[in-house]
Design brief:
Layout lengths: L5 H19 L1 H19 L1 H7 L3 H8 L1 H23 L1 H5 L2 H10 L2 H14 L7 H21 L12 H15 L4 H24 L3 H28 L27 H21 L3 H20 L3 H19 L3 H11 L5 H8 L7 H20 L8 H8 L16 H34 L3 H20 L9 H23 L1
Helix pairs in contact: 2-16, 5-9, 7-9, 8-9, 8-12, 9-11, 10-11, 10-20, 11-22, 12-13, 12-14, 13-14, 13-15, 13-21, 13-22, 15-21, 20-21, 20-22, 21-22
């Protein structure tokens, strides 16, 4: 019946005609030649060959006595407590409170989902970073109880590869040998909270259904903060001169921030998680679920535009390009063509905002170069050891050098430089090594995975990381702790999806 519909036939004729025009166009032919050139380069590139190969250090670490020693040491509390539990098991099993605890441990993925949902929706004025820390340690305690009462359950440390282990060690040493250790302690807690969420997600998610529960709960939270951002725009947001160069952005409305501290924080969170809407849409078999996910994605997309965050727009474009590349690289020319075609229909304020990226008169652009000029001498002195954890220690040290900015810069406006100046050369190299090894492993998983939901979830995770790391070139994305948490949550989801693929 559907094939006999006049409307369907009409749409088919129009689509066929447009595709014919596209394939015969000079623009498509040029883009197709560029894609062929890249394909040939990738096929013969030594760099690509290295990226495909599993790292020697990772393989050696998994088989090393050091890894086995630390693994045994970290498992020892579970074994000790399990012996005590078995002695008094009958007492615990008769307790109603204990039965509730057991029920909670059996649904760790649901509790993790609720925790992340709460992290999204609490407005900034009511948010305290201790909330996330309390949730992380509470979930860890439940996870530990589960390993004690369930003989078949142990902590999974496989995701802590060589690079992540060295990065964690670098964080601890950076705090111990910090120039101002008292100023760095709360930042050590931030790092610990984020890494605990990674650990909890990897140990809580054991199958596709649990992965779907966590991802889709997060997307519900993102949809809500997107709706709140739209409500802010309708109600009206005052233009903040501290966030926008008014001389180059005349007529631009106030930038929405929803439940976060400022528009850039909101934009960074949105651009990290929007790729997962695409993953759920493509990975779902149900038309109704796809329709719901499509509807949920509208508010975050609109909100991302209303933030007027240029770096996040670029990061989002890179993330979607990466998603297309990993899904079907042949569609890249079409994606680029669609991007070019969209430029004339952009709202004037958005178009003007994009143009300011390339304008050296823009205060936020010039300010970054002044920061780099300011931190240069400090960097020469501390490039190997770092100054210690946190922006507070950074500010305390940098004020001793000639300032080229009007005020003491709170950070370097670059994720990689900030990590480097805080934890030293070994720390930043191990951080980059962990990201590269995780992306390499994930790309291998994409090739082999048959389940669409898991495959597209991994693609979304990789795309999200590549996108937000692009933003990190121009922004210190971890300055606001909730953005830092979501960054590591994305890492946790990616590692969890890889675990599900390996074990199912």
């Amino acid at each position: 019946m559907g094939s006999d519909s006049f409307v369907i036939r009409f749409i088919n004729v129009i689509a066929s005609y447009l595709l014919k025009v596209l394939y015969n166009s000079s623009t498509y032919k040029v883009l197709n030649r560029i894609a062929d050139w890249f394909r040939k380069c990738f096929g013969t590139s030594y760099v690509i060959t290295i990226l495909k190969r599993e790292g020697t250090l990772v393989k050696l670490w998994d088989k090393s006595k050091t890894y086995k020693f630390f693994s045994q040491m970290l498992h020892s509390p579970t074994r000790l407590m399990r012996v005590e539990y078995e002695k008094k098991q009958h007492i615990f099993q008769s307790s109603k409170i204990f039965k509730l605890i057991v029920l909670a441990t059996d649904n760790m993925h649901v509790l993790a989902s609720l925790a992340l949902f709460v992290i999204f929706i609490i407005p900034h004025s009511f948010w305290y970073n201790i909330f996330a820390t309390m949730m992380a340690f509470g979930l860890l305690l439940l996870l530990f109880i589960k390993t004690v009462i369930n003989k078949d359950t142990f902590f999974n440390f496989k995701h802590i590869n060589f690079y992540l282990a060295i990065f964690i060690l670098s964080i601890v040493l950076a705090q111990v040998f910090s120039i101002y250790p008292a100023l760095g302690f709360r930042f050590l807690i931030f790092y610990l909270t984020c890494l605990l969420f990674v650990f909890i997600l990897v140990n809580s998610i054991k199958n596709k259904d649990q992965l779907a529960t966590v991802i889709e709960s997060i997307l519900m939270g993102v949809a809500i903060i997107g709706l709140y951002a739209i409500f802010q725009r309708i109600r009206g947001v005052p233009v903040n001169a501290a966030q926008t160069d008014l001389s180059l952005n005349a007529g631009m409305p106030g930038r929405v921030y929803s439940t976060m501290e400022n528009p850039n924080n909101l934009a960074e969170i949105l651009m990290m998680l929007i790729p997962f809407y695409v993953a759920v849409f493509l990975g779902s078999k149900s038309f109704i679920k796809r329709f719901i996910i499509l509807g949920m994605a509208i508010s975050p997309l609109i909100a991302l535009g209303l933030t007027y965050s240029r770096s996040s727009w670029i990061g989002f474009a890179v993330a979607i390009l990466m998603f297309v590349l990993l899904t079907n690289w042949r569609l890249v020319p079409l994606f680029l063509l669609a991007g070019i075609a969209a430029i004339p229909i952009l709202p004037q304020t958005v178009y003007n905002r994009i143009l300011t990226i390339f304008d050296s008169r823009d205060s936020s652009v010039s300010y970054r170069f002044l920061i780099y000029k300011t931190i240069g001498p400090m960097f020469e002195n501390y490039w190997f050891t770092g100054v210690g954890l946190g922006s507070d220690a950074f500010m305390k040290v940098v004020q001793n050098y000639p300032l080229h900015t009007k005020v003491i810069p709170p950070h370097t406006h670059n994720l990689f430089i900030q990590v480097w100046i805080e934890v030293g050369l070994v720390g930043v190299l191990s951080f980059i090594g962990f990201l590269v090894s995780t992306v390499k492993k994930s790309i291998k998983s994409i090739v082999d995975e048959k389940d669409k939901y898991i495959k597209f979830s991994i693609i979304a995770g990789v795309s999200s990381l590549v996108g937000i790391l692009t933003v990190g070139v121009a922004e210190y994305i971890w300055y606001y702790p909730r953005v830092m948490i979501i960054f590591w949550v994305v890492v946790g989801l990616l590692l969890a999806a890889n675990r599900v693929r390996e074990e199912n």
